[in-house]
Amino acid sequence: MTLHSSFLSIVSSPGRFLSRAHRPPDMASNSVPGKENHCLKKDESNSQHKVYLDYNATTPPAAEVVEVVAEAMRDAWGNPSSGYAAGRNAKELIDSARAHVAKMVGGKPEDVVFTSGGTEANNMVLFSAVERFTRESREGQNTTLEEGVLPHIITSNVEHDSVSLPLLHLEKSRKAEVTFVKVSTVTGRVEVDDVIAAVRPNTCLVSIMLANNETGVIMPISDLSRRVASISQNRSAQGLPQILLHTDAAQALGKVEVDVQELGVNYLTIVGHKFYGPRIGALYIHSIGHLSPLLPMLYGGGQERNFRPGTENTPMIAGLGKAAELVSLHCSSYRAHMKSTRDYLEQRLQVVFGDRIRFNSHFPGTEWLPNTCNVSLLRPSILGREWLSQCRHLLASVGAACHSDRGDSPSPVLLSSGVPLEAARGAVRLSVGRETSQEDVDMIVKDLEQAAKHYEVKAEHK
Ligand SMILES: Cc1ncc(COP(=O)(O)O)c(C=O)c1O
């Protein structure tokens, strides 16, 4: 998507930003050539042209989503708990959104709880697992475990902060034991055998993301769930806690098909603003309260069946439902479009830079998100941040948005995944979206090339 404005004005004028956006990509790919290309060529030197390639950080809300949110704000402002028409209207919108969100992940509407976002959904699962373990131990279940044993949670060393930081907190405050399983530096994935090897008698939860936000690497959750289920089967008969499985699907939804039945998870985190929805989220819980326990983090007015009380944010929930509906309808064409654009981007980068670059998402035999290209400039040896800073058109980042205050230290995710230090220092994360075109790619490859030349010239004059 080529943006004819500065980033700030893009954000402040979403109508303009959205005018081309969010048609299904089958239409989008046909619609890219023509008028807009002409305009793009004419103004190529104009640094006001911006190409947003940071869709893993966030996505703009789809035009249909904005419409539904605005409509709900105007027409469905009633309290969904009120029995009269305005309230019923709001409740119907929420019910319909819940059905769409459930359908997107292949689950049942009653297994969806709306949250403020991914951070809350992730925290809810982790704290819930700890509290349940503690309750069960107090009630005399988990009989094989010694008194006072803490719950044990297994995760990976490349999770998003909204998983790793609550776990570090639980560990530090002596409320849980945590194993951070290292991802393989060969495959970039968490290996199932390594997770299984980490299981202890007091293990109660495994939390592994479905796709990594920096490398895009897709984790083997289905294989993991089969192994965890077979271990967990006899544990309650042995007086041990059941092992529940959570996956944070924030980065996978809207890019690849996600099906909770196939994944076999107890919990799955959903984040609206990663798939052109509003900035709220949801948690899928398989057979809530029966097969998968959930304990609230908040107490209040009983909304969301007491699992997440507080008067529902009807407009945003309605928008999330619309975004989910679009994913259900168009995911395969979104995926195909993003993949062909990302592949084209990588081909162009390879042609222009040859062996001066390294692709950090390429691991033998490992699948990664169809929209993600994590790439480092090796020669001249500069930081990813420096490379981006000389780009006139490209809007991208060097890694997770929540680590933008990390300064110039290399991404721990890349280092953990086996990316050499020099490459990790020079990495930029380019993530394409539903409307990114080949013309956009041509423009940013030239942009990256002139930015690299700037440093070459500088080095020559040293
Ligand atoms: C993998 C992953 N999980 C969770 C989140 C958290 O989502 P939010 O910041 O919207 O709560 C993000 C957002 O960047 C993410 O990439």
From TrEMBL:
Residues 18-45 are annotated as: Disordered. Residues 35-45 have a biased composition (Basic and acidic residues). SUPFAM superfamilies: PLP-dependent transferases (SSF53383). It is found in: Cytoplasm, Cytosol. Its cofactor is pyridoxal 5'-phosphate. Catalyzes the decomposition of L-selenocysteine to L-alanine and elemental selenium. Signal peptide: none annotated. The lineage of its organism: Eukaryota, Metazoa, Chordata, Craniata, Vertebrata. This is Selenocysteine lyase. GO terms for cellular component: cytosol. Keywords: Cytoplasm, Lyase, Pyridoxal phosphate, Transferase. Homodimer. Belongs to the class-V pyridoxal-phosphate-dependent aminotransferase family. Residues 51-443 form the Aminotransferase class V domain. One of its GO terms (molecular function) is selenocysteine lyase activity. It comes from the Eukaryota. Pfam families: Aminotran_5. InterPro entries: Aminotrans_V_dom, Cysteine_dSase, PyrdxlP-dep_Trfase, PyrdxlP-dep_Trfase_major, PyrdxlP-dep_Trfase_small. It catalyses: L-selenocysteine + AH2 = hydrogenselenide + L-alanine + A + H(+). Its EC number is 4.4.1.16.
